[in-house]
Request: fold
Amino acid sequence: MLQQVEGSQAVAEAVAACRPRVVCAYPITPQTHIVEALGRMVRSGALAPCRFLNVESEFAAMSVAIGASATGARVYTATASQGLLFMAEAVYNAGGLGLPVVMTLADRAVGAPINIWNDHSDAMAVRDAGWVQLFASSNQEAVDQHVLAFRLAEELSVPVMVCMDGFVLTHATEAVSVPDPSDVDAFLPPFRPRQVLDPADPMSIGAMVGPEAFTEVRYLAHLRMLAALDRVPALAAELGERVGRPVPALVAPYRLQGADVALVAMGSVLGTIADAVDALRDAGHRVGALGVTTFRPFPAAAVRDALGAVPSVVVVDRAFSPGFGGVLATDVAMALAGADVPVASVVAGLGGRPVTEASLRRLAERALDGSLEALSFLDLDRPAVEAALAADGSARPTGPTAESVLRHRGARSRRPPGSPGTPAGPTSTEVAS
Amino acid sequence: MTQQAPVKYYQVGSFAVGNRLLPSELRTVQSDPARANSLTSGHRACQGCGEALAARYVLDAAMRATDGRLVAVNATGCLEVFTTPYPETSWRLPWLHSLFGNAPAVAAGVAAALETAGRGDVRVVAQAGDGGTVDIGMGCLSGMFERGDDVLFVCYDNQAYMNTGVQRSGATPPAARTATTEAIGPSPGNPFGQGKDVPAIAMAHRIPYVATATVADLHDLERKVERAMAWHGARYLHVLAPCPLGWGSEPADTVRVARLAHESGLFPVYEAVQGEVTDVLPVRRKVRVEEYLRLQRRFRHLFDETGAVREPETVAALQRMADQAVRRVGSGRTTHRTTYEESR
Ligand SMILES: Cc1ncc(C[n+]2csc(CCOP(=O)(O)OP(=O)(O)O)c2C)c(N)n1
Ligand code: SF4
Ligand SMILES: [Mg+2]
Reply:
């Protein structure tokens, strides 16, 4: 049943329908509303038998999840940004041990400079941790992906991270249908762990592995991840049939038929991209889009198939590797290796900078006329950068870069809302890190 | 019937109680052929490893106390490495190793999972070295204490990061040589500081049970584990476990060195209930710190070739530390059985 609900609340209800036995979390904006809602449900007894652990750090949150999962409990946690990096060692550990933890990542930029708004640099930082990473482009997708995540995780013994854009999705209220608990029960069988701590059958989990077997252990983890490339579409179809709406699987093509340019992206920006594509198509430009829904394992074949004969590809990344370029762009280029298709990397929407339809249209037009560089930064304020560079060249100390850029941008104009420099999202009372 | 002659328990200067002389119900769990053997033979610890000795006694006592319904969580460190060279394992109970600094939180997760599965009868022990406890594990440990998770946390204190080659930890005593506090320069060895008294930190959390023990009194160690398992909630046991490799002591001297740590006052052995000391193991034969220090090459720079004190000020400072530790813990508040003599 459709209801007007905040994304965080909807996700919490979807997680609740999956009947977790242990929920553990540490607060960080913009994840808080999800775990607060779950905390209330556990408190009220609605989720019994379930325990909610208020832990002292994200590192502890993931560690509690590891212990509980290895003891056979279905576990859930959520974090973002600094929190994800603070738990990074345990994130890798859960991946390496093959424990089916499900975690929501309310995607947020990673500092310094500290910033609470959305981009994908947190998710990219643990790209190689051995977790399935699903990206939601809407709250409906996020809700359905959580239900899929538990089934996938437990079937394959791999942890799954559902990445949803902080504020843009977590704090947006829109019409969402939360799956019926009975549908979830029918889709998600009780957790039957592959490995479990049990006095009746003692096993040692987490032993040291040397060079004689480490490669094989890691290779098996790779195979399990590859298996997810088959299982995600199958489970998405099964769940989709049950809930009566399409559930996203590996990739989401949009008006790619006969396209001269394809815009590739992940997350909520795909909504704006679809609007830009519509406008461009209306204006007679043959532009399409491709959403990547499953980022790890990377669906290289599906990407290649979807982009087919598109002669020019532009990847819009909400994160990048400083000194190189977009992360998704690199993966897309690798998927298209040998196809002789130029892949332009565009870094956009960092730290909550809005990615506007107008900017996307200009971007596509430049791709169409062949003037787009191999790597570019959308809506970069060149004068501000040049002023900071100039200041850097003068006497030391010049102070923090962040301050110098802010001073320069502040010194110019008061900008209208929604223009570059005005983050979309929280109201002033919610600006808390 | 004539009155039985009083049994003389202590046959050696050590005041150790021989199992042979005790009625069977007072003998150690370890002397029971039906013991669990939780940490079985074949592991790769060095000869005379205090940690291996302590862990064996702790876990078998906990196994007896829980009727074999026990799960162990282990931090990274010597104990983890020497027991599980893949694909072999010395553990005969369910055992989980995750990371170096997270054992308290992992154990909390295990306990929460057991509780919500209706398996509250299965109990949890978490174990770590001093590094995994007083340094990198401190945040998780404090969280576990504060929440009152149903876990007995055991620290095997060998006073340095042994697994990585004897580097200084927050539990390394002043003046001790480690690989990162070499015995060179004007003040050789580990600098003097306040140290980090984790049993006291545990007591400050007002958890139900905190105790210290050494491998020199294994009856005492087992009894404390048994007492700890009688409580629910967060409990803490800090065991001094000499490391022949890191301390430069003879493998055959592990128990002796541990006993001297207690008798010199440097390592008080006591237990505390709800944050208050309730029982102090008396020192029967007080010794000066030199007697303890001399057996260990990590303190060799304090003595000359003949064994005479070369650094009298340092030794005096260590003696003051020992005397202070004894005063701080006190000795007169004994409310529980402390010796087998008193128990009769
Ligand atoms: C996060 C992290 N930092 C450092 C290490 C390296 N390391 C592994 S064991 C160890 C020392 C363990 O010392 P302690 O806890 O005292 O146990 P011991 O080996 O002395 O019994 C260190 C530093 C690690 N494994 N993980
Ligand atoms: S180095 Fe020390 S703690 Fe480690 S196994 Fe050897 S004796 Fe035991
Ligand atoms: Mg140590």
